[in-house]
Write a structure and sequence with these properties.
With 211 residues, the chain is of the alpha+beta class. Helices cover 55% and strands 18% of the residues. The protein contains nine helices and five strands, in the order H-H-E-E-E-E-E-H-H-H-H-H-H-H. The chain has helices spanning 3-7, 11-30, 92-99, 111-115, 118-135, 137-140, 144-175, 179-186, 195-209; strands at 32-41, 48-56, 65-72, 77-84, 88-91. A hairpin with a 3-residue loop joins strand 4 (77-84) and strand 5 (88-91).
Length: 211
């Protein structure tokens, strides 16, 4: 082994050092404890996977909360998940969408390159830790309504996605001159339609009446 090889930390060492530096505040400021840290080597397709989990200590209720970081460079996966027993999990992106301001900070480095570069790996972990610091007050305070708000936002987003799919289909029906089907599709959501979709529905209604 060369001196350069000996001086270069392994991925296991880089992962541990980077996550400790980024997420030590969970222990120092919020009473969490390290529950698990592991680096596993999967098959050639999955590659190496690093995972660390911190959990709240003190009361049994607090012990149900956890923060888990997962890195799978070959799968281009870097996830930070929050959880509370009986309430499920929440991605850091969801928390930011609910509690944060501005766009979610994007990656600064490629994950495969970061796997071989301790400084880049640390920067990516600090990026996610910074979002958690900025948006995590309600999670750290164990605010039960946080999970209700997250659930409500998911329902709202699912409804919005359904509306978008419906509007896309209405455009196809309009081009195909399927007036009756278009009316049946848009009538139930008429009160939520914008100007263009409302005009599309009105035109289809008129065509149906002209038959």
């Amino acid at each position: 082994m060369s001196e350069d090889d000996a001086a270069t930390p392994s991925f296991e060492e880089s992962f541990a050092a980077a996550e400790q530096a980024a997420f030590r505040f969970l222990v120092d400021e919020h009473g969490f404890e390290l529950a698990e840290r592991q680096v596993a080597r999967g098959d050639a397709q999955r590659g190496v996977i690093g995972r660390v989990r911190y959990r709240a200590q003190a009361s049994p209720q607090d012990a149900a909360r956890a923060v888990e970081l997962t890195l799978a460079p070959l799968q281009l996966q870097l996830d930070l998940q929050l959880s509370k027993a009986t309430r499920g999990t929440c991605a850091i992106e969801e928390l930011h969408a609910l509690e944060g301001k501005g766009p979610f900070p994007g990656r600064e480095h490629g994950l495969y390159d970061a796997m071989h570069n301790p400084a880049e790996l640390a920067a990516e972990f600090h990026r996610l830790a910074g979002v958690l610091r900025a948006c995590g007050a309600r999670f750290f305070e164990d605010d039960g309504y946080l999970w209700d708000d997250l659930a409500a936002r998911r329902v709202h987003r699912a409804a919005d996605e359904e509306i978008r799919r419906t509007l896309a289909l209405s455009q196809e029906l309009f081009r195909a001159k399927e007036w009756q089907r278009l009316v049946e599709l848009l009538k139930p959501i008429e009160s939520r339609l914008g100007t263009r979709a409302s005009a599309r529905l009105a035109y289809a209604k008129r065509k149906v009446r002209e038959r």
